[in-house]
């Protein structure tokens, strides 16, 4: 395990600040804007998935996000709380995932600058909130790349498979890993 550098410290501080200040912004916007309807569709599919005995009814997406939501619902999390906060939670997780990959593959300095550059455009905030399956894919992709760089091939295969069953765009993760191996 690498030692915590000053860049690692500031990366953690930056992720904490972004997380802290995004929550009130999220809570003020969530009930009003239609861009967040996607989470209710995914929750509906996760309910239908298990109500139908594991058969996919009205399924447009690969199932990983729906299975994750179902497990969270069965753990006792209320539907409205899950709908309200799951998509918000993807925003800081995307930074943590990117930082972990950049830090392990390159350096703490590269990780800090990657998080800093990704935190600038507000569109990142909106897209991680509006498109949950894509946001989950953007969280898993750096982890799959990290596993490949760290030569943890079994973990890389599992994460890549999860990417494939999270969103159709997961095929690009496979292509990226193939290019990396070449």
Number of helices: 9
In quaternary terms, these chains amount to single chain
**So what's the overall shape?**
globular
Instruction: Give the ordered list of helices and strands.
Output: HHHHHHHHH
Structural class: mainly alpha
The share of residues in extended strands comes to under 5%
Q: Give the end-to-end Cα distance, rounded to a whole number of Å.
A: 27 Å
Spans with pLDDT under 50 lasting ≥5 residues?
none
Average pLDDT:
80
State the helical fraction. over 70%
Characterize the largest beta sheet: strand count, sense, and whether it forms a barrel.
Answer: none
Q: If you compute it from the alpha carbons, what radius of gyration comes out, rounded to the nearest whole angstrom?
A: 17 Å
The tally of strands reads 0
Describe the structure.
The chain is an all-alpha fold and 182 residues long. 76% of the residues lie in helices and 0% in strands. The longest helix is centred in the middle third of the chain and has 27 residues, at 79-105. The model has no long low-confidence stretch (mean pLDDT 80).
Annotation keywords:
single chain; mainly alpha; 9 helices
Task: Break the fold down into its secondary structure elements and pairings.
Layout: H1 6-29, H2 38-51, H3 64-74, H4 79-105, H5 108-119, H6 122-130, H7 132-149, H8 153-164, H9 170-181
